[in-house]
Amino acid sequence: MEVVDRPVEVLRTVVEERVVRVADQSAPRSAREWLYLLDKLDWALQTNRMNHDDLDLIEPKLPRLYSALQARRTRLGPRT
């Protein structure tokens, strides 16, 4: 007598690839989000979370940031 084995069930893994668009979260979009980041930076500085290398990267950007803030205020003109 001859016995034949036949699979009853075959499992196959199917991989489906999709392209999904998500909003870019790399830059804050509102003043509230910017304030959150500035608060986190303040916290990191106040709690000694940054070393000399970190400060060396941040410090040169501060005058440029302040200049940009002042220029924006000037372009907006006085409050009405």
Write up this protein:
49% of the residues lie in helices and 0% in strands. The protein is an all-alpha fold and 80 residues long.
Parts with pLDDT < 50 across at least 5 consecutive residues: none
Strand percentage, roughly? under 5%
Q: Specify the overall morphology.
A: elongated
**Whole-number radius of gyration?**
28 Å
Question: Tally the helices: what do you get?
Answer: 3
Compressed to H and E, one letter per element, the order equals: HHH
Largest sheet: none
Helix content: 40-55%
> How would you name the oligomeric state of the polypeptide chains in this document?
single chain
Our measurement of the CA-to-CA distance between the termini, rounded to an integer number of angstroms, reads 100 Å
The chain-level structural class is: mainly alpha
- Average pLDDT works out at 90
Count the E strands. Answer: 0
